[in-house]
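Morning run. Coffee first, then this:
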Amino acid sequence: MSSSLAAMSESLLNAEMAFAGKRYAARRAAELRSEDPSRSAEQIVDLLRDEADAAEAEFRSREFG
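And here it is:
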């Protein structure tokens, strides 16, 4: 595979992962809101951030573990 094709493939993969992450966050935010309608946007963001941090920690432990 040529280097420019590899770069395009990597760029496309990164764009797809960003899209998937944003879609997941939007759906999860809606779930969190429906579980407790009194939650503020800040509380939802904090919960999403905690989930993202936990997912990153799991990824890092598998990647380097």
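Residues 5 and 11 are 10 Å apart (CA to CA). Good start to the day.
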